[in-house]
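S1.2 Input.
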Amino acid sequence: MTTRVHIIDHPLIQHKLAILRNRETGAKEFRELLDEVSLLMAYEVTRNLPLEEVEVETPLARTKCRMISGKKLAVVPILRAGLGMVGGILNLIPAARVGHIGVYRDPETLQPVEYYCKLPADIQEREVIVVDPMLATGGSMAAAVQFIKDRGARGENIKVMNLIAAPEGIAKMERQHSEVEIFVAAVDERLNEHGFILPGLGDAGDRLFGTR
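S1.3 Output.
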């Protein structure tokens, strides 16, 4: 595993992830926990945003402080499960623009198929965080990152954020987008014969929206 893969092992994240994995956790609690974990992970994903010095007048005196230096951000969820991660990130970064990419995995070939892509017009000027709870085969994420690159964004300005990744998905991302940083809360054992992460947490979209 390369140094561009970051495992966020903060105790609060790991605690909430354990509850998310539990098959007894219902859709309402799953949505709330996913929102909370996304906010906590976003704190780490944005750790290296550039700062600039500004002057601020407090009630007592003028002082020099540091603020984010105007770097524009975009959050791009992969539909549909990625939608569950957007709210937590926007709570932390309310000025971020939100794009959407629709990619589904063909159940026979396990290959990604695009059905929707809507991004901010100035995506090439933004730092982009692509979100999806699961990085399984890596096909959908690799395709989504390529769609964003095709619209002008530089790979160095793209970050990927997942709850759980499989080694196979990480390997695919490293082969196709080696410059993209990946942030995850856990790397699990492997994929099963249906392309689901083991032990994983099941189908994140179904658990998020209460569907099967």
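S1.4 Remarks. The chain has a mean pLDDT of 94.
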